[in-house]
Amino acid sequence: MPMNLFKHSSAGKLKILFVAAEAAPFAAVGGLASVMYSLPKALSRLGHDARVFMPRYVFIDDQKNNLKMDKRGLQVPTGSENNDPKHLICNVKRRDENKKDPKSPVTTYFLENMEYFELRTNVYGYSDDTIRWALLSRGVLEYISYWSDWKPDIIVSSDWQTGLVPNYMKTLYKDDPIISKIVSVFSIHNLYFQAMFDHRFVSEMDNDDGKSPIPPIVGDGRMVKINPMRRGIMHADAINTVSPNYAKEILTKEYGELLEDLLRERRSVLAGILNGIDYEVWNPATDSAIAAKYDVEHILERAKNKSALQERFGLADDKDVFVLAIVSRLTKQKGFDLLPNVMDTLLRELPVQLVVVGDGETDLMGYFQDLAAKHHGRVAAHLQFDPVLPHPVFAGADAFIMPSRFEPCGLTQMEAMRMGTIPIVRKTGGLADSVDDYDPSHEIGTGFVFEKFDSMSFLIAVVRAYETFRDKKAWTSMVVRALEKDFSWDVSAEKYVKFFNEAMARKTK
Asked: Which of the four pLDDT bands, split at 50, 70 and 90, describes residue 508?
């Protein structure tokens, strides 16, 4: 089983550096960026000194973000022994936290390199991405060891992009007087993505055992064949995933993505800590993006948001219709390929409406577009990313659909509950940790959970939810329970502190 988080605790102030490919508000592609903003902020509120280190992409404006030069001409060794460059020249810029602004991100460092970061339009998607992240991983260690006045106690690297940080620390920097004393933590946000290639289709000759030396950053074709996810897991002092249940699931063949044996070997240093959500952003009592503000004391006001949602999406204004919502990347990982087998039946047999917001795989986007055309006035689809639209959708919908194949954590089910929308989810990963199945006999639960990944199990969960919705007293009680759940980052940050302290205690033994 994963490690016990609560054996050891220390009241000391920790210095924690998060290294990641993206962090809000500077560069935000996926959920990682949100975590890299909110978790360091929560740790800072607990009295710890948490900071972030990331690339400076071309779209991160110096003036707008008040970036200042911290180190000019940082020489990052490439490891090359041939005629290739022995060093890549970088700068490190810094943005200090504005203590007077509660929304200010923590102090953030930016690795600047013209070729690998500034000349790129996007964060991801280049054939040399492995080289770019290797530069980031070694660059942060060079900066800390030789130039920075601030030395962290812990370095947290996130997902495969920074999986080489623990590897470098354990090998090339193992005798460094600074780096050797720092605890390396590797954080798995999604085990499915491990490298530039699909890890499930690798020849025996190209398989990376994780033990061989890291190839030179430039001029060596082997670099694109390494598996940084495997290396992060193998070499880190401690490992965490983003939910307790996911930490158990990845030890199995079903969810382990070919790394389950390695993870079982390292289970004594593996922990699962549920992500949180930003309660300043998700607060129906103060949300300016919704039609009517509400809380548990003024729950009847929420009904106005349902009417506003129906009007906004061209659906019939009917308070007795059961409004389902999807706010998500439209991918098969999220389980939306279960819907074509049952959605027409639901719409034909029950007074149901469906609102879909998100983009993703072409076939699923086409399906929802066709469904909206076929059931005009009952299904509406906004098939593109929109950062604001989830707020009025979650404020007005009755239930939220997330039938994931696997889900390391998931944030949208927490956001939905924070706004009083009841989730219908599959029992996997963080969904199992955050949604309690409704039990009418004991009047408990915050959602509807099904186990088997098939369309009929999903259909039964939706019907269960609809039948409960018809009992207005039971439904309102469930909405109140969902609103009262605490998924704030402060709760998660306390667990991270215990996890970090235990890792430090092991290293100093």
From this structure: confident
Same-domain pairing of 122 and 244: yes
| DSSP classification of residue 406 | -
10 Å CB burial of residue 490 (0-12, 13-18, 19+) is middle
**Does 241 share its domain with 362?**
no
Return all residues near 360 (Cβ < 8 A) that are at least 6 apart.
328, 329, 330, 331, 334
DSSP state of 479: H
Burial class of residue 91, CB neighbours in 10 A (0-12, 13-18, 19+): middle
Q: Specify the number of domains making up the chain.
A: 2
- H/E segment holding residue 501: helix 489-507
- Which residues are paired to 450 by β-bridges? 426
As a whole number of angstroms, the distance between CA 274 and CA 491 comes to 9
Q: State the burial class of residue 235 (Cβ atoms within 10 Å of its Cβ: 0-12, 13-18, 19+).
A: buried
Residue 41 has pLDDT above 50, yes or no: yes
* The pLDDT of residue 153 is above 70: yes
Residue 163: half-sphere exposure toward Cβ, Cα within 13 Å: 26
| pLDDT, mean of residues 391-416 | 97
Q: Which two tokens stand for residue 173?
A: 């920097």
Please report, as a single letter, which amino acid is at residue 189. Answer: H
Residue 289 lies in a domain: no
pLDDT exceeds cutoff 70 at 11: no
Integer Cα distance of 472 and 291 in angstroms? 22
The Cα 491–Cα 176 span in angstroms is 35
Q: Where residue 478 sits, what CATH number does that domain have? A: 3.40.50.2000
CA dihedral 236, 241, 242, 243 (to 10 degrees): -150
Which of helix, strand or coil describes residue 118? helix
Does residue 9 carry a pLDDT above 80? no
The residue range of the domain holding 361 is 296-487
Q: How many alpha carbons fall within 13 Å on the CB side of residue 258?
A: 14
pLDDT at 292: 98
